[in-house]
Amino acid sequence: MKGDELLQEIELNVVQGRRNSSDEGLDEDLSGTPGVTELVEDALNRGIGAKGILVDAISSGMTEVGERYEKGMYFLPDMLAAAETVEAAMEILEPYLLKAGIESRGKIVLATVKGDLHDIGKNIVGLMLKGTGYSVIDLGNNVDPDDIVSAVVENEANMLGLSALLTTTMHQMSETIEAFSGVGFRDKVKVMVGGAPISSEFAEEIGADGYGKDAFEALKLADDFTDI
Amino acid sequence: MNDNANGREGVLVDPIGRLGESQLELIHETSLKILERVGIICYSDEASSLLKDAGCEVVERDDDASVVRFPRGLIERCIELAPSTVLLGARDPENSLVLRAEEPRVRFGSGSEANVYLEMEPSKFKQEDGEASIEYPVYRRLRGNVELLCEAAHLCQQLENLDFFIRTVNIQDSDIDEMDKDANKFFASLNNTSKHVMAGLTCLESLDKVIRIGEIIAGGEKELRENPVLSFITCIAKSPLQFVEDTTGKMMEIVRRGMPVVISSSPQGGSTAPIQETGMVSQINAEIIAGITLSQVVKPGAPVLYGSVPVRARMDDLNDLYGAPEFCWYNIDCIQMARRYGIPCYSTAGVGDAKVPGVQATVEKLISHAVIPMAGAQYVHYAFGLLEKTNVFSPDQAVLDDAQIGIVKHMLKAPDVNGEAAEATLSMIEEVMGTSHKLYARYTRKSMRNGTVFPPYQFETKESEDRSVLEAHRRRLELMEVPPRYLSRPVVERIYKEIAGLVDRINPYS
Question: What is the pTM of this model?
Fold first, then answer.
């Protein structure tokens, strides 16, 4: 397979949501043929640059996935499956990209707030952000405000995403934002909040920078924040 | 018989029942006792005479009627004679229905002969003391006519979950004589849908005209019996326990001509039948099996359906009440009785007492749409578009009902739990638990596309406003844009040449 063909094959497998040869894909059963991770390894071994793989195969694949979603051909599970392929590819590509001095689109810390164990929404947001080229540091659920602030500062993240499902835990978002006051990093980080009981009014009230009602709005906020 | 395996599949259910074996036997025994002791008041001399010859006790009355008391042996022999499989054909073979009594495979269709066709116009309204505006359905009640019946048949052709067409609209055109009504309604229906067409007869004299239309469409006399593109409904019983002359005569003649026929009864619990479950089901069952007995006396082996349309009365005005739980009890019990007898069941679900589409209609319809088919009736009528009891046909409601029945059909599908699925589950869980996000989303993708996972409600509204009726109307307009699949020009020309009384305005080639 030539280099161009290999990149096309990676793009196709991103669109099909195939991480490796065990995944069957969507349009037809592709089980047994190489998936994104095997193809990326192959490309690197052939000397194709990490940046080329990222831009010409993975990003273009995700663009195609986004277009299919817009047209109603793809659904959220298809987006997530594709994002998983990107997550798997990025694990392989990251050292090469760092070596080449190529940075991610932005760095975001994600957490479900203290007292709350519900993390499905946060996980979906994390996967989608990874799939579109952001560096994601996921702290998990039931995370103490001070631990969140420490993670943001230590990682020099430019974004923080907080989630809560319960009305009894949503006030922890406010506590977390207030916890920045002692460390003086608040002006360097954009905070987005989301979750079933959260609204844009609540976000404004607690001093967050944005509210995303779903993963797509979270992605849009991240893009907006990064442009700033 | 053309045992067409390629017809409409419907949905095969694992049937539920309200009655246990001993209760079914008790209903059967009570029905037999009703027919042995009380009998049927029969207003048809011919039927009385035939039944007398078959072994019934017939006692003349003073009012041109007679009381016919049925020996149980005759009833049981005739039930045995009635076929357990009935084929209802269609213009398109893939739309035919093979109804097998032993197979609880459910098909849904339209029904009634509503006098009113409910037209809807979405209209904009402004808030009286503000700027807000809202789109809201405004209804017009149209008197049913033959063109509206054509429209309804064309719409029903497009509805994915509608398996057969029973004339939805009573044609009340001033220029169509009573004697020509049957030919016009059957032609209007058959010309606009390639699904099975069923209707009642207005005049016995029209029977041969209607059958001739069927023969021309099917390709001949023998071909029509092998592929009965049309069939009949005869409600021979006037409850309680009377055979009316008119419908009894129609049933006997249909049977003699070898065409499939529903033998139905529609007593109203609380007025023409006991409201109590035992009483209602024993009586309607007696009425139906008496009718089936007569059909088999007339022609042994005649293809008939056990037609149960038990209704409950309202207590405020003794009108019909379809959206009542008892309606479901009665119907489920009847389905069980039909299965006990080995005769395919024509059952009833999905009528709304509501006058327009909306929450009330949805609640009333969903109760019976969901529950009655679970008992495994082979042929569920009244399921599309009926409102205000059975007086109104709303095409927009029919579209809403199609969506609802799609959900019901999916709900009734057999469980997919087996060894292979268990193996796949284990490997999926192992895989997902090894990821950071622990989401099963990727494993839903194929299921979403092959139909094993049902999509969200077809007419859901994203905003905080319920636009489902308006969206159904929009969908209806889209469906009506699909060109009708008329009969071919030579077939239509032949029908118009041979059958007098058909109006020109429903001839697409005129």
Answer: 0.88
Dihedral of the CA atoms A39, A41, A43, A46 (nearest 10)?
Answer: -140
The greatest distance separating any two alpha carbons of chain A, rounded to the nearest whole angstrom, comes to 57
Greatest alpha-carbon span in chain B: 88
Domains identified in chain A, total number: 2
**In terms of domains, do A119 and A221 share one?**
yes
Chain A residue closest to B441 (CA)?
A77
Instruction: Read off the pLDDT of residues A188-220 as tens digits, 9 standing for 90 and up.
Output: 999 999 998 999 999 999 999 999 998 889 999
Looking up residue A192, the CATH number of its domain turns out to be 3.40.50.280
Domain boundary among A99, A121, A149: A99
pLDDT of residue B5: 60
Question: Are residues A172 and A147 both part of a single domain?
Answer: yes
Please report residues of B whose CB lies closer than 8 A to that of A84.
435, 442
Range of the domain at A61: 3-99
Any idea what the CATH number is for the domain that residue A59 is in?
1.10.1240.10
Res B2: pLDDT: 42
CA-nearest residue of chain A to B449? A26
Give CA–CA dist B193/B213, Å, rounded: 14
Least reliable range by pLDDT among A25-29, B180-184, B354-358: A25-29
Return the pLDDT at B1: 44
**Cα–Cα distance measured from residue A226 to residue A158, given in angstroms and rounded to the nearest whole number:** 8
pLDDT of B149 reads: 98
pLDDT tens, residue by residue, B30-46: 999 999 999 999 999 99
The residues, ordered by sequence, that sit 6+ positions from B363 with a Cβ below 8 Å of its Cβ are: B323
Q: How many CB atoms lie within 10 A of CB A204?
A: 12
Residues A86, A196: one domain?
Answer: no
| Token pair in block for residue B415 | 């469980």
Q: Are residues A222 and A111 in the same domain?
A: yes
B437 with A77: Cβ contact below 8 A: no
Q: Is the pLDDT of residue B3 over 50?
A: no
Of the candidates B437, B438, B442, the beta carbon closest to that of A77 is on B442
> Which residue of A lies nearest to B455 if distances are taken between CA atoms?
A75
**Cβ(A178)–Cβ(A186) under 8 Å?**
no
Predicted confidence (pLDDT) per residue in A79-125, tens digit? 889 989 998 998 899 889 888 888 888 999 999 999 998 888 898 89
The interface pTM score, or ipTM, of the predicted complex is 0.78
Tell the residue number behind the tokens 């005129």, with chain if given.
B510
User: Is residue B137 reached through a cis peptide bond, with omega within 30 degrees of 0 on the bond before it?
Assistant: no
| Residues of chain A with a CB closer than 8 angstroms to some CB in chain B | 17, 23-24, 26, 75-78, 80-81, 84, 87, 120, 123-124, 126-127, 138
